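Action item from last week, closing it out:
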Amino acid sequence: MDGMHQLETPAEDIADILARQRAAYLAEGEVSLATRKDRLSRALKCLMDNKDEFIRLISDDFGNRSSDTTLFADIGGSAGALKEAIKHVGKWMKPEKRSLQFPLGLLGAKAQVVPQPKGVVGLITPWNFPLTMVFVPLAQMLAAGNRVVIKPSEHTPLTSAFFVRVFKEHFDETEVAVVNGAVETSQSFAHQPWDHLMFTGAPVVGKLIMRAASENLTPVTLELGGKSPVIVGESADLDMVAERVATMKLMNAGQICLAPDYINLKKHQRDDFVDSYTKTVSKMYPSMLSNDQYTSIISARHRERLEGYLDDAREKGADVRVINPADEDFSGQNQGNKLPAAVILDPTDDMKVMQEEIFGPILPVRTYESTEDAVSYVNDRERPLALYYFGNDEAEQHQVLSRTTSGGVTVNDVLWHGGHETLPFGGVGNSGIGAYHGYDGFREFSHMKPVLKHPAKTSIGRLLGVVPPYTDKLRKNVERMTK
């Protein structure tokens, strides 16, 4: 569903919620461990008490979405993040002791870094994983002691409307609130003076969000995606590569920011890989149009965009192979917006499919002469959210990982590094700013405030000779410090 007819939330309404949340935050003072755990537990209850309804609504929003995909990627991933925060928030909250430079530590000074809530956080989420993109960052935001206003995607209007009801049942609006709307609401939302703003979506929109946030010097976390490459070494098992790439390339019909975008392998490997990939996809999805486990593209507009990539590649001479095991007539569907899997052999850089993040079940297959060629190809483009290497050659693996920069890496598989709450998740450059998940998310949404305590009875300034008039005491101390 396109969700373009959703009513907009006026800017003054968003500003009013922000003002009331900030007033409540300031009145509350220190946010206790018990309060944080209570809010996290209520968020978990929002999820688990309504999981069946969420599964149904998300499928309706997509046209069809596998209930197993939602259960695994949205329900499971969200619950894991909330439970991780509940379990560890007490440890995360503890001040960190820091050592001091000589001789301050010997003179009675003590230092620590104290995590402090930022205050009121704005959260703009995408449509591809409607629950995960809300509950995972929310887990770390609440653990950090913040209050949160959520703006879910207009492309999943049924799910987004349900969020309003669910959160109202478990939270006062000054703790967690939801505002809905489309482009105008997103623009108004981004221009508010949040204490922190997080956005997940396309880089082109991320630039607009950052520009709006800059008017208030609002710190941002941007998760932006991009073209995440797969580099296959000669030592890799091609059947293993085919299965693992197909699993995540076709989950959610490829509508995953971490999905493998294109694959690079040696020329002599190409045909064997394509043959294995085609057989693997056919085995996973013997039918697609009539298969409830094969997810729809979110809207007609996005389906047409993907079909345009295929048409553009054909027009420019590419070998485009559609994988349609049951020979189904996808042109006859109405609102389903399903798109069969496809591979594009030897794509050229002037093709749209190699210029934009695909976000669909299309896999370009490139070949390279040497590992250096593959590395150079990646480095000549914007830094990706993820990079994937397959192979058992440790030297080659080191070359690929040390010579490229990406948000994260999974070796001999794809996407899985993003599923661990113990690993920071985020991009670099065009693929994002900042990182979240687990403790790293707690730090992202906290102000890590340094607190230095000097002894009341001892003047460290006088001991070091910093109090005027200056004498040789100061100069000798500086000499000791600079030796």
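Closing note: The first strand starts at residue 96 and ends at 98.
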